[in-house]
Structure formats: structure tokens, C-alpha cells
Design goal:
193 residues, mainly alpha, two-stranded antiparallel ribbon, 7 helices, 6% strand
């Protein structure tokens, strides 16, 4: 009979609170984004964050660009922020806001994206034109994608439960609560079209 060996790993797990990273402004963006704007960016991210991660992971499988050969393959394929956004009906409607999420959250807050050249801030008209600047994903942070996906799914679950409970308390009907949960989930999936 085979002897069972218990597998152990005493290496400490990564103890990062991803919820605070997603929902609270870090030092890199506190002076860049107001609290109300940050809340708006969080809402947009909750709607489209999963798709953005999938798109960025897809481009991370390729490497290299003319400006920087990236011989060690540390980064994904560089593209303008606009090209990191998957095409879709609702993503096209919210494209300008999603670009803000990619810049302020994925680049400045999470450090997922790295520009090939530094963005220029125009202080006279308060813009940062990144039209000609390509951003690439840091492959060393690929392990974080699952944790961020879980944050997005958990936020959707909390929203669904909150709506279900609210509808039940108002209507006192289980049918309406289930219907509300169904509608919320349907809307969440429609945002991916």
C-alpha cells in the first residue's frame, strides 16, 4: 500500500487587501482624482473591469515594440489605452470613462500598465493626451488578475443581495425579490455585450 505524504508549504501567502486597493485612493492618485470622481471611476470599473483584465491579459501574451525590444519579455504588447478596451455596444458608449479607469486606476493605482513614454500633462487645458502613447501590462503582476476578478464578482454579488433584500423589505414578496435579482444579473451580463 502506498504511503500518503502530506504536502506542506511554509511560505507566507501574499497578504494584500485588494478591496481597499480597488475602492480607496492610493498615494499616487489622491492628488490627481477627487473623491467623487474616484467613486465614479469605481462604478465604471465594476461594470467593465473584468473585461478590461481579460483584454490586458490577452495582450500580455505578446511582447516587444520598436521603442523598446523587451528582450526579457517582462511586458505585454503595448497599445494605446483605447486599443486595450474590447469593442462592444456599452464599452463604446462608456469608452471615454473607461480610458480614465485605465489611466488612473490600472496605470497609477494598480501599476498594471506602464507607458512606453511618459504622458504629458497640459496644465493650460487640464488634459493628459495619451493618444500617441502606448501602455503595456507588467507580466510580473499577472498573479493579481484572479484577485481583482474576485473583487469584481464579489461587488456584483453584494449589489445583487442588497437589491434583493431591499425589494423584499419594500414589497414583502419573494417573487419580486427573485425577479429583481434576475434583472440585476441580466443587466450585469448585458454590460458585457
Amino acid at each position: 500500500m502506498a504511503r500518503y505524504y502530506k504536502v506542506i508549504d511554509t511560505q507566507k501567502a501574499i497578504a494584500q487587501n485588494y478591496f481597499s486597493l480597488v475602492f480607496f485612493r492610493g498615494e499616487n492618485v489622491k492628488n490627481e482624482v477627487s473623491l467623487l470622481r474616484w467613486i465614479w471611476l469605481c462604478l465604471i470599473e465594476m461594470l467593465f473591469g473584468e473585461e478590461l483584465l481579460e483584454s490586458i491579459v490577452t495582450t500580455a501574451s505578446n511582447s516587444g515594440c520598436p521603442e523598446d525590444k523587451d528582450k526579457d519579455r517582462k511586458y505585454g504588447e503595448p497599445s494605446q489605452l483605447n486599443l486595450h478596451i474590447p469593442n462592444g455596444i456599452l464599452t463604446n458608449l462608456f469608452r471615454r470613462q473607461i480610458i480614465q479607469v485605465l489611466y488612473y486606476k490600472f496605470y497609477l493605482q494598480y501599476l498594471f500598465l506602464l507607458p512606453v513614454t511618459n504622458p504629458y500633462k497640459n496644465v493650460t487645458n487640464y488634459t493628459i493626451d495619451v493618444s500617441r502613447i502606448r501602455f503595456r501590462f507588467r507580466k510580473s503582476l499577472l498573479y493579481l488578475v484572479i484577485a481583482f476578478r474576485r473583487v469584481y464578482l464579489f461587488a456584483a454579488l453584494i449589489l445583487n443581495i442588497a437589491v434583493d433584500i431591499s425589494v423584499y423589505l419594500i414589497s414583502e414578496s419573494v417573487f419580486y425579490a427573485i425577479a429583481a435579482g434576475f434583472i440585476i444579473e441580466l443587466l450585469r451580463r448585458l454590460f458585457k455585450i
